[in-house]
Specification:
Helix content: 55-70%
CATH superfamily of the domain at 134-294: endopeptidase domain like (from Nostoc punctiforme)
Radius of gyration: 57 Å
CATH class of the domain at 134-294: Alpha Beta
CATH topology of the domain at 134-294: endopeptidase fold (from Nostoc punctiforme)
Strand order of the largest sheet: 3-8-4-5-6-7
CATH architecture of the domain at 134-294: Alpha-Beta Complex
Structural class: alpha+beta
Largest sheet: 6 strands, antiparallel
Oligomer: single chain
Order of helices and strands: HHHHEEHHEEEEEE
Strand content: 5-15%
Shape: rod-shaped
């Protein structure tokens, strides 16, 4: 027979603690019964036939403790599962709140950047308008200075200029009242007299020179460019002695004018002059224009 063959073990199986306690309780009850019987009478007395069974308190305690342990274990498992569920919910809520906070911050940053860009654009536009207004004032001052110098150096030229202005006034005085598109243009321009002058403005309560001319022509259903030199480049040139209501007056050269206005008849024009005067109606003699064009 091989030495490595399986040899049955002679070790006694281990008894569980509950079984040992049960047997101990039974044994204790039996011994207690014998002790009581021995103390009840003499040695020759008849044997006692009634026995008293003692309760097996050990087994009851073990069962109670086991049930309590099982209940405690179940409660602990349930509490642990509940804690894990709450932790999972808290983690999910935190992640959602974090994502929403990041999204809100990104949106706030985008709006802030857009506001900064808009402010920068408005600032640049304002600076451009102020520069254009300053250049316009300087150019008009230079033109008036040159005209005054020419007049002092050449009396004949001055007389000719005065005659030209007078003829323009006479022509306007003799002209009939405007009608049709011209009447709409003149009525719109005169309705804005007293409004403020703001460079770059196109109404309804503030204008610059080309913005007013463009809006007046639009009232008659005619589209014009936005810039003064583009407006004076339209239509055909007309003499200042042959003006009609609705004609566009310009200052400077026709293709490089720096100021425009609308002739309204009677030797007068309406224009958005500058920030000091706003929109005014003035005589041609107050600030003689360089030329005129007719669109109608």
């Amino acid at each position: 027979m091989s030495q490595t063959a399986h040899i049955p073990s002679h070790r006694k199986p281990r008894r569980s603690a509950s079984k040992l306690a049960l047997r101990a309780g039974v044994a204790g009850g039996v011994l207690g019964t014998i002790a009581v019987a021995g103390a009840a009478g003499p040695a020759n007395a008849e044997p006692v036939t009634e026995t008293i069974e003692m309760p097996t308190l050990g087994s009851l305690d073990v069962g109670t403790n086991l049930a309590s342990a099982v209940a405690a274990s179940a409660e602990a498992s349930q509490q642990e599962a509940l804690d894990q569920s709450l932790q999972s919910l808290e983690q999910t809520a935190f992640q959602k709140a974090s994502q929403e906070a990041k999204k809100a911050k990104a949106e706030a940053d985008r709006k802030a950047a857009a506001e900064r860009a808009e402010k920068a654009r408005l600032k640049a536009e304002k600076e451009r308008q102020e520069a254009a207004e300053a250049a316009e004032r300087a150019s008009r001052t230079s033109t008036r200075t040159q005209l005054a110098s020419d007049s002092s150096n050449d009396g004949g030229s001055s007389s000719s200029s005065s005659d030209s202005g007078s003829r323009a006034s006479d022509s306007g005085s003799r002209s009939e009242a405007p009608s049709g598109s011209a009447a709409s243009i003149v009525a719109f321009a005169r309705a804005q007299v007293g409004d403020a002058y703001i460079s770059g403005s196109t109404g309804p309560n503030a204008w610059d020179c080309s913005g007013l001319v463009q809006a007046a022509y639009r009232a008659a259903g005619i589209d014009l460019p936005r810039i003064s030199y583009q407006q004076s480049s339209r239509g055909s040139s007309v003499s200042l002695s042959d003006l009609q209501p609705g004609d566009i007056l310009y200052w400077g050269s026709r293709s490089g004018s720096y100021h425009v206005a609308i002739y309204v008849g009677g030797g007068k024009y309406v224009g958005a002059q500058n920030s000091s005067t706003g929109v005014v109606e003035r005589s041609l003699d107050w600030d003689p224009p360089s030329g005129a064009v007719r669109i109608l």
